[in-house]
């Protein structure tokens, strides 16, 4: 598993990448997740899925044959483990939050017991890296894994109370204006807390 992730990151070095950052107030989302004992990362995944649904270029990837478009939105979540970074993939992320939560529980159980298979951590459309729990990380850029259009890096809240969200994108798939529009849509969904919790 570690070798597969290392190989993926090595391939990603050749990806022409750009970064776009916005600042968002995620406190209402944090509070809602805490009140209902929900995972903030899953709420972020749900917002990303809704954004991708409205901007389908982010559900594509570049291949040797050209642009490959996908129907299902599969999102990987970066997880810090004693053995290194692992990115389990949630499939079909437009489903209700309770279904995603159950799938995520199963993936974490597999991860804890070292039973993840390649199908559990490969083939993602989009990636999420959340360093919000690490106070002081006010902004960071993440590497776009091979086979994905983009990865969203979520930092910890800054002293101004806002959270920096940085979208790293494969420039062969999307352009700067596409990223700006996607982030505007994402910000809208992050503010619609009740809808995300369904």
List descriptors.
two-stranded antiparallel sheet, Chloramphenicol Acetyltransferase, alpha+beta, 36% helix, 6 helices, 198 residues
Question: Would you give an account of this structure?
Answer:
- Helices cover 36% and strands 24% of the residues.
- By secondary structure, it is α+β, with helices and mostly antiparallel strands.
- The chain has one domain: Chloramphenicol acetyltransferase-like domain (Chloramphenicol Acetyltransferase, 2-Layer Sandwich), CATH 3.30.559.10.
- It has a six-stranded mixed β-sheet with strand order 1-10-9-8-4-7, covered by helices on one side.
- Helix 3 crosses helix 5.
- The radius of gyration is 16 Å and the shape is globular.
- The model has no long low-confidence stretch (mean pLDDT 92).
N-to-C CA distance: 33 Å
CATH class: Alpha Beta
By DSSP (H or I, 4+ residues per run), the number of helices equals 6
Overall body shape: globular
Order of helices and strands: HEHHEEEEEEHEEEHH
The share of residues in helices is 25-40%
Return the average pLDDT rounded to an integer. 92
Main sheet strand line-up? 1-10-9-8-4-7
Cα-based radius of gyration, to the nearest Å: 16 Å
Number of structurally distinct domains: 1
The CATH architecture name reads: 2-Layer Sandwich
What would CATH call the homologous superfamily? Chloramphenicol acetyltransferase-like domain
| Strand residue percentage | 15-25%
Let me know the number of strands.
10
Q: Supply the helix-strand structural class.
A: alpha+beta
Q: What is CATH's topology name? A: Chloramphenicol Acetyltransferase
Residue runs with pLDDT of under 50 for 5 or more positions: none
Largest sheet: 6 strands, mixed
